[in-house]
Amino acid sequence: MPLPTDEQLLKLANDLLLALDHKFGVHPGFRPAHARGVLVKGVFTPTAAAPKLSKGPHFGRASTPVTVRFSSGTGFPMISDVDPKANPRGMATRFHLEERVHTDIIGQSANGFPVRTGSEFLEFMRVAGIPAELEKFLAAHPAAKRFLEMPKPNPVSFATEAFFGVSAMEFENVQGVKRFGRFRLVPEAEVKHLTSEDLAGKGESYLFDELHGRMMAAPVGFRILVQLAGVGDVVDDATVQWPETRELMEVGRMVLTEFQEEDAAAQKHIIFDPIPRVEGIEPSEDPLLELRAAIYLLSGRRRRSA
Fold it and tell me: 0.90 cut: is pTM over it?
């Protein structure tokens, strides 16, 4: 994917990378955020309802191979699994449509985002370690305050956590019907979190160790849903959650069966894209999407050259 030509957007993306470097340090070969992760592979199978929502090629095929990256928060490559700062967790999914052709879903375990725009996020990053300044920022940005106060419990497993696409997409089917929606990935093993007492007995790599043992024993399944926007719902602001009464359409099932070979090299190479770039799924006007795509590409190129 090419870098955007918007100079202001590129400057903001570079400024945010610098802010992340300042906060977490520079770790060559690793992502500046969600640095600790693991890649697994599997297959996506669409439901019969999927083509009714979108003419995306993976919704009309019998199956599509996928690569998934589970990750922990922060830019520290070896952050402990029991560290509260490791939440929210991440789940990035790539659908391999053809050679060098793909579309991705970027999900996180918190439903929402603290700010609406990139400039607000940069300000948030800069004041995060200064209590008095952070207090003023949160007073002026109630969505950020809600996000920080949102419960973020540790999952029992990556395979027992739900992940949310925080930015809305516009889906279009072959009849030309368009609807806005947000992806949601739900574990077939059900959502299960640890109590503080349970967490106290866990090791620093319990999530990655547990996933390895779980997948050695059996495949890991996720249902892929789309929460459909209702009349009047805001579709260009990742800080705004839609009511849980909104329709959830199941568009497919993903079965993860094996770990990526040469994981470290593959993680350096793969650059996930928040923008779908596929027929039948278009980005909304959420201002975070173009910015996140630029940051991912800039950091990915830096990672590859490390």
Answer: yes
